[in-house]
Structures are given as C-alpha cells and as structure tokens.
Design goal:
The structure holds two protein chains of two kinds. Chain A has two domains: 93 residues; 71 residues, Winged helix-like DNA-binding domain superfamily/Winged helix DNA-binding domain (Arc Repressor Mutant, subunit A). Helix content of chain A is 75%, strand content 0%. Chain A contains seven helices and no strands. In chain A, helix 1 crosses helix 3 and helix 6 crosses helix 7. Chain A is globular, with a radius of gyration of 18 Å. Chain A starts with a helix and ends with a helix. The N terminus of chain A is likely disordered. Chain B is mostly beta strands. Chain B has a single domain, classed as YVTN repeat-like/Quinoprotein amine dehydrogenase (Methylamine Dehydrogenase, Chain H), CATH 2.130.10. In chain B, 9% of the residues lie in helices and 50% in strands. Chain B has three helices and 28 strands. Chain B has a four-stranded antiparallel beta sheet, with no helix packed on it. Chain B has a four-stranded antiparallel beta sheet with strand order 2-3-4-5, with no helix packed on it. In chain B, a hairpin with a 4-residue loop joins strand 27 and strand 28. Classes of the chains: A mainly alpha, B mainly beta. At the A-B interface, helix 1, helix 2, helix 3, helix 4 and helix 5 of A face helix 1, helix 2, helix 3, strand 10 and strand 11 of B.
Chain lengths: 166, 453
Amino acid sequence: MAQERGRLEELYARHAPDAVRLAYLLTGDAPLAQDLVQEAFVRLGGRLVHLRRPEAFGAYLRQTVVNLSRMHFRRRRVERAAMEREAGLARAGSREPDLAGRDVVRQALLRLPERQRAAVVLRFYEDLSDGQAADVLRCRPGTVASLVHRAMQRLRAELGPETGEE
Amino acid sequence: MDPFERRLREDLGGLADEGPRPAPLSAGARRSLRLRAGRTATASVLVVALLAYGAWTGVRAIGRSTSGPATGEACSWSAVPAPSADPTRYETFLRSVAASGPNDAWAVGTYNEAREGAGSFVEIQHWDGTAWTEVHPPAIETYGGPSVTGVAATGPDDAWAVGFNEEEGGGVSLAVHWDGTSWTSASMHDSSLPESHLFAVAALTPDDYWAAGGWAKPGDLRGGGLMDQWNGTSWETATWSAPATPHPANETGGPYELLNAVAGSSSSDVWAVGQSQDVPLSQSRTWTVHWDGQDWAIVQSPNVDPEPGTGNVDNSLQSVAAIAPDDAWAVGSYQLKGTRLAAPATHRPLAIHWDGGRWSVVPLPEVGQGGLNGVAAVGPHDVWAVGQTVENPGGAYSVSPLLLHWDGTAWSRSNVPVQGDASLSAITAIPGGGLWAVGSQGSPSRPMVLRCR
C-alpha cells in the first residue's frame, strides 16, 4: 500500500508542476489552479486509455486542465449572472488593483475572452502548433490562428508601449 | 518572431513561475483515485483518448497526397467506396480489417458525433465481393460508448471483433461474434480484472482465436498484457508464467505492458506485440510475446534510441504479421527526440523482423515523421506496412497516408491512390490474392478503403 502511494506521488510530482503553471496562466487564480490540477489528476490517474500512446500522459493532463478551466469559466459565468441579478448590479465589479510589473500582463491576459486566452497560452507558453492547439480546443487550426490574431491585437493595444519594447 | 511575441512568451513563462506550486494530493483525491475517477470522468477521458488517437492517426489533419516509386509489387492499389454514418453529423474511424476470402471481408471501427462529450458507436462494414455495406452492430449496454478495434474471420459465418466498452466503472473487454446472420456480444470469461481492454484479434481456426490487449489497476499505476483465447466454446484468459520485463532501478511505477496486436502462422506459432512502459519516466520499449502452442514467453526485442541527450527511449509496436516460425514482422514507431510536450510529430516509423532466432531492426526508407499502424504479408517476399507521415509546416500540421512494401530485400515507399489528408490504420492479405487497407480521410473523418488487386 505504501509503495503504491509512493508511485502515485511520484507521477503527481513529475507532472503536476507543469500542469499547475498552465492552469495558473489559464485562470490567473493560484488556489483554483491547484484544485484544477488535482481534479485533472484524479480524472486521469493511471487509467489504461492514456497508455495506448505511451508518451501521452502529459498531453492528456494538459487537455484535461484546459477542459476543466473552460468548464470552470462557463460555470462561473452562470453563477455571476445569478449573483448580479440578485444584487441588482449592472455588471461585475473590477478586479483588485495591479500590484506591479508582470501583473499588468496577467491582468491583460485575464481580460481576454477565455478562448482567446487559452489559444495564446497554448501557442506561446505551451509552444503548440495551430493544429495541436486546435486539437486541445476542439476547433479548426484556422480558428486558433484567428483567436491568437485577435488576442494579440488586443494585447498589443493594451501592453504595446511598455511591453513591446526591447 | 516579432519582439512583442517574444516578450509575451517571456512574460508568460515569468508569470507561470510566479504562480503556485502544486498542492499536496488531498486525501479526497487519493480516495477518488482508488475508487476510480468519478462518473463524469469516464466519458471525458474516453473523448480525450479518442481525440488524441484521432490526432495521431491523422483524422483531423490537413494533408496532401504522397508519391513515390512502385517497386516489384504483385498488385496495384485503388480506392474502393465505403459507406459512412451521416458525414455532416458524425466522424467515422475504421481501425481494423480482415478477409476470409475474395467475397468476404470485414472492416470495423467507431463513429461519433463531432462534438465535445459525445459517446462513440460501433461501426461494422462488410464486403460481399461487390460492395461495402454497413452491418447492424450488436446491442451493447454502455456508459461512455463501446469501441471496436480489431476483427478476424475464418469464413462467411464466423468472425470475431474485439474492443472495449466504457462502463461506468471503467473499460471492460468486449468481444462480438458473427454467425453468418447477426453480430452478438459474448461474455468475457475473466471479470476480475480492474480494467481491461482488447485491441486486436487473430483467427487460426473457428475454434482457435487469440485476442490481445491489456489490463490496468488505475490507482496502483500497474498494468499488464492480456491474452484471451477462444476455444470454440468460451473465451479464456491466458495465464502468464513469464517474469516481468526488467525496468530501471529508479522507476517507481509500472511496468504497464500492453499488447496492441496479435497474429499467428499456425496454432503453435502466435506473436503478440506492444510496448512496456514505466511510470513516471514514461519510457516505452517494444514488447513481444510468443505462443508455441503450450505457453506464452516474453521474447527480447530491439529498440531505437532517440538522438543522444534529447529524451527517453519511446518505442511501440502496433501490428504484427506472422509468416512462418522463422519469419515475422512487427511495426510501430520510435521517438526521435524527447520534448517536454511529447508531440506525436517527433516519431518515426519502426519495423523489426524475426528470423527464427531474434528480432532485429530493419531500415526503412526516409519518410520523415510518422508511424506504422499495420503490417500484412502476402508471402516472405511480399510484405506491406501502412501508417501515416506527419508534417508540421508553419504550425498547421498535416498528415498523409504511408504505404511501404518489402520485396524480400528492402522496404520501399509506394504510391497511395488517395488525394488529400488521410491515414491508414490497418491492412490484411486476402486469401486467394490481393490486400485490403483501411483508414480515415478528410475532416470530419470519413472511412477510407483501398484494395490491391
């Protein structure tokens, strides 16, 4: 039993750090990122289906993290709409103020629509091709290209002066 | 790369560094892993698996046709029309093909709605000498959808197809039989395995079929190869007397041994091939086992190392053809380079040959990235292998069918008579002459059937 637990811990220790980084970029929320990765790990943990392609555990974990974070945003949209109705608010309150430095980037990233953010993170952080990102997002490669294009336009507009300089 | 994009990449990396470390696995997570992922997981994991498998087999790809010289082939390839479930609504994937004669062949696979979370359905097609038609699949109670991945036949009234059914508790082996009139589901003998999948089946006589696959204990990170034998009355799980594959000392889980294919030249000469994977290093080595009529024995098989310093050994075998006790072929892929994300495009086709004494790697023509999924022999000097090549120009990756021929001396690349994106998943020799090959083409994926005659 102890040995089996050791194996699980080992698999988790190996794959969870990358997955948490990805989840954090997708959600901007540290505790949520940790929770999403635990849930993703539970969903995948050692199942046979991912072993047909032995190299793929990391890729499955990534896919599951992306799916779960998108599910989270969908759920939150519904919850937020209900809260706003109850509170009679016109719109959601703004996020906490910027702290410094990269937080500007983080805030700009979080203001992107969820699909655009996922596309940018998969392309420029995970370094996937349009085709690979399209498989993760379940859309066509052309859609990824256009999501990234729109996201970059928006990020350039928001960050351009400070961030675009060498 | 423009400066803004470069800076954004750096910032994303920096942001990720500022993020949290993983929290320790909670007690609840551990418990869930033991009890197996919850009910919502089963379907989503299956979809992920199909998606990844589909991506690998080129189902979602944008591609182009291939061309190359044809050498010493006894037949020539052409496309044969095959039906598909409503292509505006469904994707269809053919996984396996078998023929008992010129007027009797089966192709099996799955189809599913092209949307997130959709379950899969069994696709079965039959060739009667004139045309391919869809045949009503057996009724199978399911949770996440059954998958049929292998088929074998001895005659017009005897065929078996195998796969796995995603039940609420996980994957369960599935075998369905054709008696000349209809397909019916058989009960599998051993239900004690925590999770079991069958991937392939071979027919020797109506009373002697072998099915190959794997079992797993999900919470324990252990699994092994699974061989089931049909004795004319029931399926019996073969017991293993062989020792486990040796693995490195620093490994903490596994080995997961998995058999992807099975073929025999007689009831006392059967090969099953696959791979043995360790956890968590995710190294994978070829794995071959042989049946001499009495016992299964593990037989040592070679691997191709990646370029020095670039990653782990990652080899797998997807198909096997047994010609004689001293002549067999197995094909699959190896990883050329290790990457953090382990994209399939880093793989290359692999072929190994058994000469009666040992397996050895046989050189293939340079085709770039890709892999082999099927191999079939007409004779010792006429062997075919099918798969796909993968290209990744400018981000959008494309997949093209791959067809290789062995003339007794060397492998060479053959023309594929299909334009556009496609991949080939299986091939079989037709008793009486010729071959069938099946796969998928286009996006959404449609069946593709080729015949060599």
